[in-house]
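Hi! If you just cloned this repository, the fastest way to understand the data is to look at a raw example. We've pasted two of them here, unedited. The first protein comes first, obviously.
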Amino acid sequence: MSDFTSNFWNLYIVILTVAALLFCVWILAVVGKREEKAASKTTHVWDGDLTEYNNPLPNWWRGLFWALLIFSVGYLIYYPGLGSFKGLGGWSQVGQFDQEMRALEAKTKPMYDGFLAMSAEDLSKDQKAMGTAERIFQNECARCHGSDARGAIGFKNLRSGAWNWGGSPAEIEESIAEGRTGVMLPMGEALGGSDGVQSVVAYVRALSGLPHDANLVAQGEVLFDENCTSCHGNDARGMKEIGAPDLTDSDWDYGSSEKAMAKIVEFGHNSELEEGAFAMPAHKGVLSTGQIHLLTSYVWGLTNK
């Protein structure tokens, strides 16, 4: 937003608010002068003898209006309400939120620190601890991995047992704390175009037991050995050091159809830079060390009962 636009809306809010308060003061002052006169009859009569009088407002009622106006002025001086004016009290929604979060963290820290003394394996057997861990998962992880942790296109299925970056408790904890960014280089040109891509796709599908064109497998294997083993390994089982997935299992983050696999092989993806791709964000600034350790136990326990 430009400075001009920001200043315009700031002045607009200030002028509108002050004008509304002054208008209320004027109304009360005018009404107060008129009500100094004696009560008079109106032309409203019901049932022949029931007459409406124009009586002045009770003093306590007018006093209440004045008190509310004075309170409003004091409120706008102490709290933010007049455009970009932050108020003399220094209060803000963000500050209030941070204060409450610090209080909550101080209250729960001893409990989470206690979990650090237990191994992930032992924690995964503690039903009470896992109940807490599941609530953390639903709050922090379900939006990507699903409430059942089975993921979606572009989001890892945490129940599959396939781990691109390693599935030990230490490796899972590092993934949660530090985040992960997956990169697949575009291989369309290196494979000689669409025909080469289709051959490699056929070979990879054969490795994982998916339906494939058997006539393309031999050529696909040659192209795979020449272009893909540096990341996925000679046996196509991946390299967890760089997050290259195992291509021999049944877990496919971006879909297992021929079309989906061909798209990834030809164009690649970068989950940090590419629009529509998804990176695993670091949670060490969002969750405490104890919470991350507890969450690690929960995720590890999904496939290690």
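Ok, and the second one:
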Amino acid sequence: MGAGTTAGGRSDTPETQAMTAWPRLPGERLRVLAWEPHPDHAVVIAHALEDAGQRAELASTREEALERARQGGHDAWVLPGDEAGLEVVRLLRRSHAQQPIVVLTPGSEDGIRAALEAGATDVLMRVPGYELPLPSLVAQSIHRDRTHHDLAPRLAAMAERVAELEDQVRALRSQLEVRTSEMEVARRGVQDAYAQRSTMLANVSHELRTPLTTILGFTGVLQDRTSGPITAEQEQQLELIRKASIQLLALINDVLEMARLEAGQAELVCLPVDVGALLRDCAEGLADQLRGRQVAVDVRLQPCRVESDPTRLRQAIWNLCQHAARTTLKGSITLDLQPAADGGVTLRVTDTSPGMGPEDLALLFEKFHHMPPTRRKVSRMGGLTRGLGIPLAADLARALGGKLAAASTIGVGTTFTLELPPRSPPPTPRR
């Protein structure tokens, strides 16, 4: 190290060190206790401190230095870096943990290390001119000690606050873990309940289809007069039974299909489908159903093909057509099929029904939803007929990788938009 090198690694000439702007305490005369065994060095140290405006008090022996240090009242101590001086540093450091101590070491890396290990605040190498930076180094040590003293309560308060926050974080993390566990249990419970409901619906639907099929069979036998003649009134009654049974069977089939989709048990396939041809077949069936009513069927289509499940796709389109037929009393039903930009298709089914308000539109895809009694009169007029057809169509669209949306205006009509990708998700494996 060069002249005046300190433990902090600064290396300057004595002249530049004397000009260094160390922090000073304005208006104060610092008291510095210095023990220097060599009389000449003691005088040099005392003059350097006094010239800098600091009050130097010299101790000539080790015992005197220890006694005067224990009496207190000094802002800093200056001690030698030999073995006796370092022993004094160790003794004083035990009773004065934060007191600034500047050690004058003979001038080696080992000496600096030993002084710092003993407890020195700062170390100054005893080389020619060392007395010049000494007052500034003492003032710096005192300033640093007082700054630490002033900041210590704040730092302690901050550390206490940090500890409190850490405790709160741990408590919140523990609560979060508990809530997450509870939510996971609840989620599994909902999934189990949902699966049980779907299974129950599927089982009930299977059980209902058998007697309903029997009713339809015997109704047909009676209508064919195989078992004997029937009157005209009986013929009308049997026709009502047949239509009601067909409607109920369609509803049961919808419930069964919906349960399969919810339970993930629907066996989907992926085959090339001519959507235009499928739409024309549905349009013909729709026209037959509307025969005798003042409702026109307008088909607008472009050739479109996708890879999907033809049976489920036909069912989704037919449900949309059925909804339009039930709600449209007069006017028209338009089936518009167009290719999509991604290679899929977009089908719009637009009718001139009385339409729906935002409240009804928001509940359109809800399953098993019942309208309030005050609104059922409107339903009989054809505008708000509810059933499982539209929710099932939405489920089918999702199962095929697409989506179903609806828009409606009261007094104008309703439009359903079915979007399908060019290829549906992979087929569902058999279970």
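That's it. A detail worth noticing about the second one: The two ends are 83 Å apart (CA to CA).
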